Fold this sequence. Notes:
There is one protein chain. Helices cover 40% and strands 28% of the residues. The chain is α+β, with helices and mostly antiparallel strands. The strands form 3 sheets. Strands 7-8-9-10-11 form a 5-stranded antiparallel β-sheet, covered by helices on one side.
Amino acid sequence: PARESPAAKRRTSSMAEYVEEEDEEVSDEEKVAIVQHFLLNSPPGEFDEVKGDALALVQDGLVSDSMLAGICRAYNKDALRIVDLEEGRKMVLCDASEIDATTYLDPRTGDSYSVDHATLAATKLESEGSPPTAASALGEERTAIEAAVSEYVAAQYAGNACAGTFADDTDAIKVVVSGEKLNLRNYWSGNWRSTWTVEVRGTEAFVSGNMKVRAHYFEDGNVQLQTSKDVPPTTASFADASQIGPAVADIIQQAESELQQGLEDMYSNMSHETFKAMRRVMPITRTKMKWNIHEIALNRNLRK
């Protein structure tokens, strides 16, 4: 009988390995990891849709209720999701506002709320003692920053938006800003979120932070934008606690405006620079296309 060539043996071996890989069973741990990855990377406003599709890919009960609650909690805090409170007020879910896994602080009133991470329903709890924000030595500074940043968000943000300002026993104040705008019927969604640290030292405040933007457009496709920018410490001077608020809000507004302007410039230049760089100078035939309509018509008539 004819001997099999070395090349044929390698092909046969590779095919056998490929079949083995195809037949390899995915473990339950790997399935749970895949579901978790999908959920934690859900686009803005689409968590419930992704959750339904991802859970449909695995057998019932593989992702337990407690495990799903933990994933929801991690996603809500990372996305700085906003929950509705009574009287039209809102609250941001974040590390600074978290008292425990399901309890969060509204810094404006000092009230605590029990939050269902799956539905984002918030229930007010009975107060037990002084809230952490009120006990801080930076109470006046926190209140001034909260008022100024809330005014900025109300004036500049469209859609569902909220800001939270938190102070503890250190010399730092945490500020979070979250905005979300959704139109899933027209196949797009997006959010803008930023976190800031204000270190107060005498009559100076050092403001640093991070901004994240995410957008999703999915009509007949799947296009996403994700960008993040760190803001180095910027100094704000003030004479008293009432002046620190506008100074911090101005720094936040300037940084966010620069990022927005940068994104707008990128998109306006995309057709002239990015797409032009991606386009071939000449087609594969190495012959330039002739777009003279009269020449094309003449050639068609000659062929007849």
